[in-house]
Specification:
single chain, alpha/beta, Rossmann fold, 6-stranded parallel sheet, 17 strands
Length: about 725
Amino acid sequence: MTHVLLIAGAVPQPAVLRASLEKFRAEGAIVRLVGMFDAPELREGLGDESARLEGLRSLTEANEARGAAFAKRVAKMPAPRRVWASAEGDAPTRRWARKAQVLVALDQGAVYATWQLAQRNRRAHAVFGTAPGLKAVADRRDRPRHYRIQDARNSVPSPAHAARTTKRTTRRAMGSALRRASSPAVMRTSVGAKAWRVAVTAPKVPDGLRAKLARRVSTSMAKGGRKAGAAMVLASAAQLTANRGLQAELYAESARTDLNRGHDNPGGRAKAIGAALSQADARLKKDDTKGAAAALSSALGIAFHRAIHSDGLSSPLAADPSAYLAPFRAGKAYQKLIAPGGRALPAAPAPTGRPLRLLVTTYYYDNFIKPVLDRYGDHPDVEIRYFDVKDDDILRPLARSGGRMLEYALGGQKPFGHQVEAALRPHLDWADIVFVDWCTSAAALFTQVDPGTTRIVLRLHSYEAFTHWPHLVDYSRVDDMVFVGSHLRDLAVDILPQLRQEYAPKLHVIANAMDLEPFQREKDSADARFTLGLVGVSAVAKDPRWALEVLRELRARDPRYRLVVIGDGLDRKASATARAYDDLLQKDLEELSDAVELVGRTDDVPGALTRVGVILSSSVRESFHCGLVEGAVSGALPVVRDWPFFAGKENGARTLFPADWVVASPKEAAERILAHTLSETDWRATTASAAKHSLSTWDWSVISKQFDTLILGTPA
């Protein structure tokens, strides 16, 4: 009896298959069928003939049994590869193929799988179509002795298949051995870690192999708890790598590994940025805008990593912007990035005979827009529209394409420019003024194209200055730029020399819009003066540990002092730096648990402040600090830390607020609080003066007039 395996790459026609099975059976063959079909449906089509099959196997059903991920991956393959990928991993199919003496591909899609199975079973005939299959069965029946000899000679797989299998097996074995030898468990031991560092830095190792080995060792070291070593091994490999592109990648990976664990290594960071910028210039020189953009993006990503600026208590960018950004400013790629695109026409004056058309937009951050929308929403001389870019299905992916923006600025990605133009032109054609809040992706997106005669107004708050986004904005297409504090304006000008150029926008300082009247409420009692308040501690920059130090100073003199913290706590998921800070903060809170109350987020901040008699600003940096001003209006004594990011500069907390509000240290803060709270009369007089100053200076009734001057051109 001859064993035959039929292989179907598609669903066979039942009538044709029934006829073929009858012919094979007439020749004395035992037939099995595998393929890409639904077994119950095929059985129904074959009727009684299906019962005469020795075996029937659906590879489609077998793939589903192996999991949705596998089935989905296989479904994307071309038909011949799909059939073979399904058959190769199916044990019953492989077993039947080894036993078969004739392998028959029923259709074109099954030919490749049939050939692969024949490489593993060289005794079998491998044919395409039922007619050649029947001929092979007949030939085997007529010449049994010949095939016994042939089968004995071909009892092993083909040499080519054996070689491929041997190579694959060897690679897998070597890879498995390498993984075991460089596992996290091995890296936890000092001997194992040292041995692998030596292996990575061995002489005469090819660059590609060294990089691959360094990355594997780095990953295992990180998992094994040697996070510092994980960064060091990548940097060590980079030093010995001759290929400049690969070297830049390794330096960048080393720097990011350090930063992601919450450690800023200035030397390693500088090497990574320098190598990436060199690559960006080299790629740009070869007109490889994609490669140049990727390298420049790597440099920007490292330079503006949140561990350096956002989640720390200091920032090298704030300390000396020129020195920090010097490597960028010296690079050709960065110079091209910030080169002005210009506009063909100047912004048109305000229209006459119809309302001014004002488009207000942002990306995600709508915290400070509502008063603006409310004011101009009912204004008789203004027609207003508002949209958040993140809610626009066309603009959202464009705004999130920082890499494509970079490449477009460097002279590539022409289709991206066309897409942005098509998406923004209807908005720009409608609006007389586009007001973009926050200098992030929406600001960068709106300056990718010439705005025509539409006036562009951009507002920068604080955190954006410590990100890469302001460097993607074309300021030659911005007419007015608004800052919420003079200190932010000064910092932005130092960071962005474009703001000093002839084409620079007009710079304005206008405080955040705040409706302060709801905060004017009576305190619960005169004892409220012994309660300190801190509003908003969701970021490390708020530095609540400074406030706790003030509380310690006070309680050493008078145990009546307490602290109420209003708002969400730190986001521990933000970064390793944030987690490290929060670990210390939690220890402080445990120590002072009897004197600290965590209120959490509340929709009634004015109500929560009725318990607070002293309002603190403990931050290392702020754009304005609305919570402090709201507290002052509520009748709490304002105590402002001299924000370290801006302390000693021309503008900062001491120029934004009355000088007597600002203190240099926790001890000085405690002295101010004691001086004005021990006496109820003094406390009420001092807080009343602070409330009056805040209302007359920062209430929306005052600030709105400055907005009218900006938007409508009315006299201040």
